[in-house]
Amino acid sequence: MKKIILLSFFVFSSTLLFAQKALPKIDTLTSGTKTSIRGLSVVNDNVLWVSGTNGMVGKSTNGGKAWKWFQVKSFEKADFRDIEAFDATTAIVISVGEPAYILRTTDGGENWKVVYENKAKGMFLDALEFWNSESGIVIGDPINGKLFIARTFDGGYSWQAIPEQYRPTTENGEAVFAASGTAITALDRDEAVFVTGGKSSHVYIRDQKTKLPIAQGKESTGAFSVAVWDHNKRNGGKKLIVVGGDYMADTVSANNCFYSNDRGQSWKAAKQPPHGYKSCVAYISENELVTCGTSGVDVSFDSGDTWTQISKEGYHVCRRAKDGKTVYLAGNGGRVAKLAR
User: Fold this and answer.
1) Number of folded domains in the chain?
2) How far apart are CA 83 and CA 91, in angstroms?
3) Average pLDDT, whole number, for the chain?
4) Owning domain of residue 211
5) Whose C-alpha in 21, 61, 124, 174 is 20 to 30 A from the C-alpha of 139?
């Protein structure tokens, strides 16, 4: 019996030691640029773009070892909350506020062309998503009680707003958070899923609108980010996860993470939620995830049921390479980091 107990203790201790070694770390790649980054697009393991305040866009083509920064001319005061990059030369950014702008570059960020402008009162673009190199969608806060949505079918050269009668209707005090550009994501080859927050929080899939059990009721609460597995959408995006909480009480973990295994029809709370408010979540693999916010970075190895904090340093956005496995993070002070494993 004593040998069995000792053997069990050894196995248990070894498991703990292995788990500790297996936890990824955060490696800072660059910092110091005067911009708060919320837009991050990772083309592959080497090419990534970021966007933020003060009209700043950054790009690396060697996995974050070297950076080139651009302050977009005539947009020095713009806040670029999201970016979508296709390669090392082509990218699209959205500028929040009134007027709303979408800009596109084809020369690696040296020059930008306005491809969409909207001066409507109340315009506020929140997030951008592309299914492929041609088909994309942008979502914005509600105007007259309906969420703003525009589509492109030519790689972002032109955009068409969806007629008001076909836009999703929101409840009073409900909106989309422009916290990380991940309030909307591709669900499968031709559908998207997006989440809202505020006084009311929902998940929207085509004509289906489902109330989320996540924290809500105040302007600072709700769902901030949604992620879908699988990476190549082979199963039609049946596994989803949402994170959020209250950014005004960013150390509170109550009701900040829920996941679904049936395409968003039902939601289950994380048994051990991530630490505090979270603005972004991303799948690393089918069972591994990373989430970040102003209160730090957490990882999960069981599809989002239990989470472990790996850093108390705040980040706004985290993304896995579209064509690759590297995970990058970005936040205040022009800080970009990599998940080292």
Assistant:
1) 2
2) 7
3) 92
4) 181-315
5) 61
Could you tell me if residue 2 is inside a domain? no
Beta sheet of 257-260, edge-to-edge order: 174-175, 197-198, 221-229, 239-246, 257-260, 268-269
Q: Which of 94-98, 189-193, 236-240, 315-319 has the lowest mean pLDDT?
A: 236-240
* 67: exposed, middle or buried (Cβ count in 10 Å: 0-12, 13-18, 19+): middle
Is 50 exceeded by the pLDDT of residue 3? no
pTM of the full structure: 0.92
CATH number at residue 109: 2.120.10.10
Do 280 and 255 belong together in one domain? yes
pLDDT value, residue 238: 83
Rounded distance between C-alpha atoms, residue 249 and residue 245, angstroms: 8
